[in-house]
């Protein structure tokens, strides 16, 4: 890991915030230039949040079994993706490897950080192309030099926008092929029956697993993402993040949600039941060519003319995502599984859709 890190990050003296310096008990806090007054009726709104989100990480350990020493909380997993690039990739020199079609933000963050993107596409049936990846990585090893190399490889499982999860054995194969940092984005993990990559951390110290409370935990507004990795990588991610990256109201919301784990499990069962129902119902529609099997809370659906269907739904107040421009996703829409009522509305509108309208 050390030799993959950017030198400036390895040598960083992290910002030391007031609350980091002090660990004991006190009654008078005059250390952080806060304002003692309360204008919003929330007693602690005037205080900076816990930079390490300690209570939240303890709850994640208790509820999800994620060891506290191996987690860092991000402002959504998006922040963690960006921070990983900033830790490891020297702008204008190093690169990342993506397996498209995949989550679009990886490329955007790479572009923002002036980090080159290499790709090894998934196969047309959305599997990881192990022979293609092996070949790419062999070649990359020959080409790398002090002016740059592939530092990070992103695997999204279940994958956005295709919806399929990869077997843990395949992810393990990738970890053993790649000598950089493998990032497994498990944003949609809860919806899948496949095993998590977290258990691979023991044998693969250069693995980072990302989770989020935005999906199964229904807390997209709070912006709470989780990176799980070796203590060494976690120490680096903690050292370079914005000190107060997740506000107290978000940490509180996350704690509250984690205390409702039983309800969340019930909610998850509802989504899975709707997923089964929607897979059948969507497949029966005239305008639908293929419903790709999903391990997530959305479907990739191939229709005759995606743009026409997208606009038709938009005119009727229903927004889906047109993913037609993604590799292997010609005429595909990505449709989130909503409430039963929302799904019924979608089905009703789609069943009235006439293909001749396409023209
Ligand atoms: N990873 C994947 C695969 C996603 O689809 C998303 C959001 N759509 C994210 C990460 C970001 O999630 P958040 O920042 O809300 O944690």
Query: Strand tally, please?
Result: 11
Measured by DSSP, the beta-strand proportion falls in 15-25%
Strand order in space, largest sheet = 1-7-6-5-4-2-3
Give the SSE string.
HHHEHEHEHEHEEEHHHEEHEEH
- What sort of overall outline do the alpha carbons produce when their principal axes are compared? globular
Roughly how many Å is the radius of gyration?
22 Å
Write down the domain tally: 2
The low-pLDDT segments are: none
- SS-derived structural category: alpha/beta
What's the helical proportion of residues? Answer: 25-40%
**Which CATH architecture of the largest domain would you pick?**
3-Layer(aba) Sandwich
- Might you state the CATH topology name of the largest domain? Aspartate Aminotransferase, domain 2
Overall description:
With 359 residues, the protein is an alpha/beta fold. The protein folds into two domains: 7-15 and 49-259, 3-Layer(aba) Sandwich (Aspartate Aminotransferase, domain 2), CATH 3.40.640.10; 262-358, Aspartate Aminotransferase, domain 1 (Alpha-Beta Complex), CATH 3.90.1150. The chain is 36% helix and 15% strand. β8 (288-291) and β9 form a beta hairpin. The N and C termini lie far apart (55 Å). The protein binds 4'-deoxy-4'-aminopyridoxal-5'-phosphate.
């Amino acid at each position: 890991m050390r030799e993959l890190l950017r030198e400036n990050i390895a040598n960083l003296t992290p910002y030391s915030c007031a609350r980091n310096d002090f660990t004991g008990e006190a009654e008078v806090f005059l250390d952080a230039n806060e304002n003692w007054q309360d204008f919003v009726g929330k007693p602690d709104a005037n205080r900076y949040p816990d930079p390490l989100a300690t209570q939240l990480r303890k709850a994640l350990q208790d509820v999800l079994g994620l060891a506290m020493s191996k987690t860092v909380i991000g402002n959504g997993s998006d922040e963690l993706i960006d921070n990983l690039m900033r830790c490891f990739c020297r702008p204008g020199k190093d690169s990342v490897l993506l397996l498209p079609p995949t989550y679009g933000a990886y490329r955007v963050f790479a572009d923002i950080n002036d980090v080159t993107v290499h790709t090894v596409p998934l196969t047309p049936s959305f599997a990881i192309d192990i022979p293609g990846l092996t070949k790419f990585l062999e070649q990359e090893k020959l080409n790398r030099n002090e002016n740059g190399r592939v530092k990070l490889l992103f695997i999204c499982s279940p994958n956005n926008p295709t919806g399929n999860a990869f077997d843990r054995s395949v992810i393990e194969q990738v970890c053993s092929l790649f000598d950089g940092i493998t990032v497994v984005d498990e944003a949609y993990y809860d919806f899948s029956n496949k095993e998590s990559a977290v258990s691979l951390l023991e044998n693969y110290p250069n693995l980072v697993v990302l989770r989020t409370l935005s999906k199964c935990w229904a807390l997209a507004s709070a912006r709470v993402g989780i990176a799980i990795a070796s203590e060494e990588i976690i120490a680096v991610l903690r050292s370079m993040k914005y000190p107060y990256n997740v506000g107290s109201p978000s940490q509180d919301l996350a704690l509250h949600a984690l205390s409702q784990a039983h309800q969340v499990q019930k909610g998850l069962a509802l989504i899975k039941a709707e997923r089964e129902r929607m897979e059948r119902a969507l497949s029966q529609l005239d305008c639908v060519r293929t419903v790709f099997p999903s391990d997530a809370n959305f479907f990739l659906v191939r229709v005759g003319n995606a743009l026409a269907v997208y606009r038709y739904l938009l005119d009727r107040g229903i927004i889906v995502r047109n993913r037609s421009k993604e590799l292997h996703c010609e005429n595909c829409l990505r449709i989130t599984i909503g409430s039963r009522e929302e799904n019924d509305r979608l089905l009703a509108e789609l069943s009235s859709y006439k293909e001749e309208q396409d023209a």
